[in-house]
Amino acid sequence: MKEKYLPSVAEGSCWAAFGLTEAGAGSDAAGIKTTAVLDGDEWVLNGTKQWITNGGEAQIYTIIALTNPEKGIRGASLFLVEDGDPGFTYGKKEDKMGIRASATRELIMKDCRIPKDRLIGKKGTGFITVMKTLDVSRPSIAALAVGLGQAALDEAVVYAKQRVQFDKPIISFQAVQHMLADMAIQVEAARSLVYGTARHIDAHPKDMSKSSSMCKVFATDMAMKVTTDAVQVMGGYGYMKEYPVEKMMRDAKILQIYEGTNQIQRNVIGQELNKEYA
Ligand SMILES: Cc1cc2nc3c(=O)[nH]c(=O)nc-3n(C[C@H](O)[C@H](O)[C@H](O)COP(=O)(O)OP(=O)(O)OC[C@H]3O[C@@H](n4cnc5c(N)ncnc54)[C@H](O)[C@@H]3O)c2cc1C
Q: For the Acyl-CoA dehydrogenase/oxidase C-terminal domain, which residue ranges apply (predicted)?
């Protein structure tokens, strides 16, 4: 199987997607209903994954499904499903508030048959693998947030230097300077946290859930605040589509929602603190 995928990955032509969420299983990811049953040399998958990034564009899909439904999520396993597999289709492209250049679709599996060796890891370890994967991937959402915050700050500063009101560039008003200063402080703090968390993860700690969640929450809340403030600094022009900050503000919102909402991240941090101070 490895030989089959590695060349196209190396060429940069292989897109991947991650299918966890279902209509009834968002924050409560343990509520998934998709099943996988072994039939001879093939797994047969049934279920629908919702709002999957790169859905319909990717060639390979990591799908979590119940292989032992009586055990609930402890009986879940991970599979590799390929574009074109029999019984595997897509829903319509979602019409979203932001990140509109990124396709989001349903993944529909109706008696979807895949070879037996497409099971990833051991049967029954799917949920643990998914949770560990999210621990590592969340700081990458935080990194996106830092880029977005920095871009919004850049736009706001350039604009504030050019825009003249009351015969002065608006950057000369202390109220505007303080907004820009706060934006810069927040972006820099988030950047430091992302690098710090990345170093922490590179050291392969036993548990990284708390640091990963803290990083995601701080940076993505920062991106929402800084992009909103960039629109404010630019006034009515910031609200118009001619300038990029309204798009940045719309794009920032998803960062607080996907890869686990910021409320769920705060739950994780709180639970870890409770354990640490036991
Ligand atoms: C554009 C987009 C792309 C996505 N891409 C993917 C993808 O590639 N793969 C994938 O698997 N999923 C993907 N998702 C799904 C995403 O991860 C979920 O939307 C997210 O986890 C939240 O689930 P939900 O939307 O069902 O919200 P819900 O779980 O219904 O939550 C609604 C609200 O209730 C709050 N809430 C729920 N439970 C609790 C609790 N216990 N404590 C406190 N607050 C709580 C939430 O924080 C939220 O504010 C994507 C979603 C979107 C919108």
A: 124-273
| CATH number attached to the domain at 2-123 | 2.40.110.10
Cα–ligand 1 centroid distance for 266 (angstroms): 14
Q: How many other CB atoms are found less than 10 A from the CB of residue 9?
A: 13
How much is the average pLDDT of 245-254? 98
Sort strands 104-115 and 42-53 into parallel, antiparallel or unpaired. antiparallel
Residue list, ligand 1 pocket, CB within 6 Å: 17-21, 26-27, 51-53, 96, 104, 254, 257-258, 260-261, 263-264, 267
Q: Could you give the CA distance from residue 55 to residue 231 in angstroms, rounded to a whole number? A: 31
Average pLDDT over residues 111-129: 97
CATH topology identical between 2-123 and 128-276: no
Average pLDDT score over residue span 194-219: 96
Q: What is the CATH number of domain 128-276?
A: 1.20.140.10
User: 180 alpha carbon to ligand 1 midpoint, in Å?
Assistant: 31
**Per-residue pLDDT tens digits for 36-58:** 999 999 999 999 999 999 999 99
The domains of the chain are located at 2-123, 128-276
Q: Which atom of ligand 1 is nearest to the CA of 102?
A: 1
* 82 flagged as catalytic: no
Is 33 within 8 Å of 25 (Cβ atoms)? yes
pLDDT at 195: 98
